[in-house]
Amino acid sequence: MDIATWLLDSDPSLRWQVMRDLLDRPEPEVARERARVALEGHGAQLLALQDARGYWNNDEYGEDQDRRSVFWSLALLRRLGADPADPGVRTAVERVHESVIWKYWDNLPFFHGEEEPCINGGVLSQGAYFGKTGEGSERITARLLAEQLPDGGWNCEAPDKSKVSSFDTTLCVLEGLLEHERAVGEVPAALAEARTRGEEYLLKRSGFKRLSTGEVANGRYLNFSFPPYWFYDVLRALDYFRDAGGTFDARLEPAIESLASRRGADGRWAAGVTWPGDVYLDVDAPESEPSRWNTLRALRVLRWSGVETQSQDVG
Predict the structure, then answer these.
(1) CA 57, 142, 160 angle in degrees (round to 5)?
(2) pLDDT at residue 242 greater than cutoff 80
(3) How far are the Cα atoms of 145, 202, 248, 251 from residue 207, in angstroms, in the given order?
(4) Who's near 86: CB < 8 A, 6+ residues apart?
(5) CB-side exposure of 92: number of CA atoms within 13 Å?
(6) CA–CA gap between residue 153 and residue 48 (Å, rounded)
(7) Which phi and psi (to 5°) does residue 33 adopt?
(8) This prediction's pTM
(9) What is the distance of C-alpha 144 from the center of its chain?
(10) What does pLDDT average to over the chain?
C-alpha cells in the first residue's frame, strides 16, 4: 500500500510531522500545515476545552487516571506540535501561566512544578516548548539535579526510598531536559552532564533490558501507545534519541530490531494497548488496528538509525 498517502489522510498534527520527518517537504509547506493544528482537528478541539481560568477539567494533573487536566492537555498539545506562536496557543498558555497553581503542592504556579521528577520532567518540557522558561524551570532543574540517582537515572519514589532508577521516570526527565536545553541554548555543564548520564542509563540497557540479565525489563515496554503519558516504551525512547540528534548509538540496535519486528506485512505498525484513564480525545487507532502515530514514529526512528527494512521508503 502507499503508506505516505495513508499517513497524510489524517489530522494536521500528524500530517505536518510526516511532511517534515519522512517526506522532506520544504519548510514553508511544513509550517503552513503545522499552523492548522491550532485551527482544526485535535489541536483545535483540545484548545476549545480550556476554561477561562486556564484549566482543563478544573485539575492541574488529574486524579485516578483522569487525563483531562492542564498537565495532560499541554502534554498532548506539545506532542501534536501545536505552534507556540499561534495566538490561540499563546492565549491558552498565558492563562495557565497566570492562574493555574498546584493546589496540593504548596500552591506553586503551574510552570514551577511540584515534587515528583516524572511530573516535573513533563512540566519542564511543556514550559520550554511553550516559551515559559525562567524562575519555574530553574526550580525544576535544581530539583532534578539533586534527585538524580547514582546509576544515572531518576525515580518518582523518594530518593531515600529508592536506590534504583525507573525507565519511566528517567525518560520523562530526559524529555524535559532536552526541551529545556533546546529552548534556552547553552545550559550549565552540570545540567548537560545530567542528561548525558540519564541517556547512559538507558543506553547501557539497550533501551529496554535489565543490566543484570539482559532480559526484557518489563513486558509493557514493548507496548507502543500514543500518547504515552508517563509510561515508558521502546518506541518512545527511540524517538527521544532521534529527537536529541547525533549519531545512532549501536547499543540501541536490539531496540531497533524489536521495533522492526513489530511491523506488519503491509508496512504499518499496529496500535498498542491504550493506557487507562479518562480522555477528551481518542487521537490514535483502537488496539491492534493500524496506527498512524506508531507508523510515523517508527519510520522516522528507522530512518534516523540507518536501518534498512523492507518497504521502508514512503517518499
Answers:
(1) 85
(2) yes
(3) 22, 5, 13, 8
(4) 35, 37, 38, 39
(5) 29
(6) 37
(7) -70, -40
(8) 0.96
(9) 18
(10) 95
Phi-psi domain of 281 (left: phi exceeds 0; alpha: psi -120 through 50; beta: other): beta
Lowest mean pLDDT among 97-111, 146-160, 268-282, 290-304: 146-160
The CATH class of the 46-305 domain is mainly alpha
Q: Which of 123, 155, 126, 160 is nearest to 139 (CA)?
A: 123
Alpha carbons 277 and 59: distance in angstroms, whole number: 14
Q: What is the pLDDT of residue 1?
A: 82
- Note whether 239 and 226 are within 8 A (CB): no
Q: Which amino acid is at 240?
A: Y
**Could you report the per-residue pLDDT of 157-175, keeping only the tens digit for each?**
865 566 899 999 999 999 9
Q: Could you tell me the CA-to-CA distances from 150 to 143, 164, 175, 209 in Å, in that order?
A: 15, 8, 20, 19
Residue 49 one-letter amino acid? L
∠ Cα 187 189 195 (to 5°) = 80
- Residue 263 pairs in a beta bridge with 269
Average pLDDT over residues 210-215: 94
Instruction: Give the pLDDT confidence of 110-139 residue by residue, as tens digits.
Output: 999 999 999 999 999 999 999 999 999 999
CA 54 vs. chain centroid, Å, equals: 22
DSSP string, 198-209: HHHHHHTTTTTB
